[in-house]
Amino acid sequence: MSSLRGVTHVVSCSVSVERPFQVEFVDGEPTITSSAVVVAGEDTGCGPLTAEMSVRSEGSNRLAVTIPITNAGESAWHGTVQLQVGSTLIPITQGLISAGETHSETVVLRLPDGVSSFQGSLLIGP
């Protein structure tokens, strides 16, 4: 259980943000690609938060996905982070991220035999 006791300001996302990605396996090694269009001056919904993803093989049919989130704002952030792969939502526990800090979590996905690529989304929300 987490507590926000003592925190006077918490950054919150005004809407859920979705960042699509694709993972492909080339010679057994995973590669992640993502593209998102951001228009200058447009509110992305989560203000000063940035998220990067990386993937690495964890053996046969296992893929580690690491998601560091940086809070470049002046207030702490606490919200929800999920990976969506197909219709499956995978919650990522991030906890409170203080102003100017980065917090990283890694989840390991177990993939069906023969998967050569898949698509998903990183979801960050209020």
Walk me through this protein's architecture:
With 126 residues, the chain is mainly beta. The protein has one domain (10-35, 45-125): Sandwich (Immunoglobulin-like), CATH 2.60.40. The chain has no helices and 11 strands. It has strands at residues 10-11, 17-26, 29-34, 49-51, 54-57, 62-71, 76-77, 80-85, 88-92, 102-110, 117-125. The strands form 3 sheets. Strands 3-2-11-8-9 form a 5-stranded antiparallel sheet, with no helix packed on it. Strand 5 (54-57) and strand 6 form a beta hairpin. The chain is elongated and about 45 Å long. The model is unreliable at 6-10 (pLDDT under 50).
Main attributes of the structure:
single chain, 126 residues, Immunoglobulin-like, 52% strand
Distance between the termini: 17 Å
Count of DSSP E strands?
Answer: 11
**Strand line-up across the major sheet:** 3-2-11-8-9
Series of secondary-structure elements, N-terminal to C-terminal: EEEEEEEEEEE
CATH architecture: Sandwich
Give the gist of this structure:
With 126 residues, this protein is mainly beta.
Helix and strand topology:
Layout: E1 10-11, E2 17-26, E3 29-34, E4 49-51, E5 54-57, E6 62-71, E7 76-77, E8 80-85, E9 88-92, E10 102-110, E11 117-125
Parallel strand pairs: 1-7
Antiparallel strand pairs: 2-3, 2-11, 4-6, 5-6, 6-10, 8-9, 8-11
